[in-house]
Amino acid sequence: MAAVLSHGEGMLVRRALGLERSRSICRNRVAVHANGEDIRLAECLADKGAMFRDPREDYGSMRVFRVTPEGARAVSKKLPPALTIQPLN
Can you give the pTM of this predicted structure? Predict the structure, then answer.
């Protein structure tokens, strides 16, 4: 079952997947500032299993998050295998 997302959470997932400019998924990452507004949304999405943080890709004060297959389903999309990245354990 797909996670239930707020409007803001859904918009962040869509932005991470490149859906703000396209109908099809063209990427799987979003960088949010460690002290910015979107960090809380990204952390909530991570708690719901819709995103995970990818510290390998962090730069400066930017934190990179990636969408999980469940997160993609929550916005009615299917994550392509080429863009499915496993979190570090």
Answer: 0.90
